[in-house]
């Protein structure tokens, strides 16, 4: 794993709260840099905080960001099977107020970090996390840029009014992802167009759900789910996201 060889990247656990719930996230940054830098809130897949999300955070740290891995479930809970993962993610998504509170608690922690410029904060989400960050953009969260990798498109926030969406938004999905329905894309585009939002959708031919996660293929086989790592789509989507965040967070 190349990322861990980068000795200057530090990863520190952060315990924080959302109301009465104890949350256990992580701040990840390159301690070789002294200046305050843009921050990115990272919202994991429905499994919770996994090795994949830690690796992604280290890559963002190497690109000059402070990443904050959000705990969306409380107490750092994770799931190792779809039933539990569905129950945990569903408990957040069924109530937009819970989703927003959990995200905002993480954003607040990121903004407090001494390595962060609190005026330049974005967000990235994977699968379930993609749905979270897209919904936060729709809700008018104070974010400069939002990207979703193989984002679920379950919209649980009201259609945004014109001018509401502050975040520039990038959706990087697999064209063959059966979890993202055409009608969901249509609804998302209709709402973003009506809100005059600045957004882009890129679909990668042949890619299915979870294509950035090297563990996805094995998980797909284990649980008979359409999950598969796709090295080409992963590389292309990461390059697109790197350009997008550089243009909108580092200017």
UniProtKB/TrEMBL annotation:
InterPro entries referenced in this protein's UniProt entry, alphabetically: AB_hydrolase_fold, Dienelactn_hydro, FrsA_esterase
Domain of life: Bacteria
Gene Ontology terms, MF aspect: hydrolase activity
Domain named Dienelactone hydrolase: residues: 27-247
Pfam families listed in its UniProt record: DLH
UniProt entry keywords in alphabetical sequence: Hydrolase
Protein name as catalogued: Dienelactone hydrolase family protein
Species per Swiss-Prot/TrEMBL record: Bradyrhizobium zhanjiangense
């Amino acid at each position: 794993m190349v990322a861990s060889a980068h000795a200057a990247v530090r990863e520190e656990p952060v315990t924080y709260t959302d109301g009465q719930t104890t949350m256990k996230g992580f701040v990840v940054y390159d301690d070789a840099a002294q200046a305050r830098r843009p921050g990115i809130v990272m919202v994991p897949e429905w499994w919770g905080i996994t090795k994949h999300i830690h690796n992604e955070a280290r890559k963002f740290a190497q690109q000059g960001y402070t990443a904050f891995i959000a705990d969306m479930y409380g107490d750092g809970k994770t799931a190792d099977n779809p039933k539990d993962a569905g129950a945990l993610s569903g408990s957040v998504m069924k109530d937009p107020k819970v989703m927003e509170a959990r995200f905002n608690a993480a954003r607040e922690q990121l903004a407090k970090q001494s390595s962060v410029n609190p005026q330049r904060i974005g967000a990235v989400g994977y699968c379930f996390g993609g749905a979270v960050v897209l919904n936060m953009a729709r809700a008018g969260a104070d974010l400069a840029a939002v990207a979703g990798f193989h984002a679920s498109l379950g919209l649980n926030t009201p259609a945004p009014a014109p001018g509401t969406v502050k975040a520039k938004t990038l959706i990087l999905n697999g064209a063959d992802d059966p979890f993202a329905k055409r009608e969901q894309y249509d609804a998302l585009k209709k709402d973003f167009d009506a809100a005059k939002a600045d957004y882009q959708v890129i679909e990668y031919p042949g890619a299915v759900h979870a294509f950035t996660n090297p563990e996805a293929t094995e998980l797909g086989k284990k649980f008979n789910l359409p999950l598969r790592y796709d090295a080409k789509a992963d590389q292309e989507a990461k390059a697109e996201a790197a350009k997008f965040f550089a243009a909108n967070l580092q200017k």
